[in-house]
Write a structure and sequence with these properties.
It is a single chain. By secondary structure, the chain is of the alpha+beta class. It has one domain: Ubiquitin-like (UB roll). Strands 1-2-3-4 form a 4-stranded antiparallel sheet. Strand 2 and strand 3 form a beta hairpin. The protein is elongated, with a radius of gyration of 20 Å. The termini are far apart.
């Protein structure tokens, strides 16, 4: 019974590599890179951002959950109403 549970838990894990759809020869593996994005007029850099990188052609696909999470963080202030006062009034 324990061996059966162990096999099931191993198959429930997310894959650690994918075949590359771009070159069809490479394998995309999870790496942690620096992610760059523009927020308004500022360049934002996020170190150690998860991305799937092909070992043959180098194509990168950033982790969709991490991108969604980052967008949520960057856009949270849009839904809030701040009462900003000038320091000189």
């Amino acid at each position: 019974m324990e061996a059966q549970e162990n096999i099931k838990s191993q198959t429930d894990l997310p894959p650690t590599e994918y075949h590359c759809a771009e070159c069809a020869a490479g394998v995309r593996r999870l790496q942690y890179l620096t992610y760059f994005t523009w927020y308004r007029d500022q360049l934002i850099t996020v170190p150690n951002f998860p991305a799937w990188v092909c070992d043959i052609c180098g194509r990168r696909e950033y982790d969709t959950r991490a991108v969604s999470w980052l967008n949520t963080i960057l856009n949270t202030h849009k839904t809030r109403n701040f009462n900003r006062r000038s320091a000189y009034t």
